[in-house]
Amino acid sequence: MSKHEPTSGPHWLEPADDQPLPPTGVALVSLSRWQRDRDTLTGWAQQVQGRRLGLRLEVDTEIAALGSLEPVTLIVVDVRSFTDGRAFSLARVLREKLGYRWELRARGDLLPDQQSFLARCGYDAVDSVHHSDEDSLRGDFTSYYQSSGPLTRDTNFIRAARRARGDRLS
Q1: Sequence-ordered list of residues with C-beta below 8 angstroms from that of 10, at least 6 positions apart, any chain
Q2: pLDDT-derived band of residue 12, with 50, 70 and 90 as boundaries?
Q3: Helix (H) or strand (E) holding 12
Q4: Given this structure, which CATH class describes domain 12-138?
Q5: Structural domain boundaries of the chain?
Q6: pLDDT digits over 143-165, tens only?
Q7: Is residue 42 helix, strand or coil?
Q8: How far is CA 94 from the centre of its chain?
Q9: What would the pLDDT profile of 88-114 be if each residue is shown by its tens digit?
Q10: Do 87 and 106 form a contact (C-beta atoms < 8 A)?
Q11: CB-neighbour burial class of residue 28 (10 A; exposed 0-12, middle 13-18, buried 19+)
Q12: Do residues 112 and 139 make contact, with C-beta atoms less than 8 angstroms apart?
């Protein structure tokens, strides 16, 4: 699921809260800057075609602190430890409760075998500190033990459908 341009490359600029925004390209700003300068940042993003505004979040971000996410087209969730499950919950809340439809990226200490579930929770891409062979991560999973959204077919759903058809379960 590691997707296109990384957030740490020259295209993705992450100015400090006291630094000016770049004249072009993409600016990835902190939540504190977003809260403080929302109107200025919105104007910056809408002023010149091709500018994109991204928002950096921590896994413990309070959703009420976000407010409207217009014109944010990228959210990067920084994960400090692969054992912190709040990154999964945050993605679900952003997608399902706030209706965020743009790119959602997890970044940090994430294990390769977490990528499938990150995708199921709503992430579009992962920037992990752990290097892996992307082909080995894709997997041909047809069902899961946990349900994680309306499009997921977990094993309970599949068993119920088979029973309804009269299939014998082994």
Answers
A1: none
A2: confident
A3: strand 12-13
A4: alpha beta
A5: 12-138, 140-170
A6: 555 555 554 555 555 566 666 66
A7: helix
A8: 8
A9: 999 999 999 999 999 999 999 888 878
A10: yes
A11: buried
A12: no
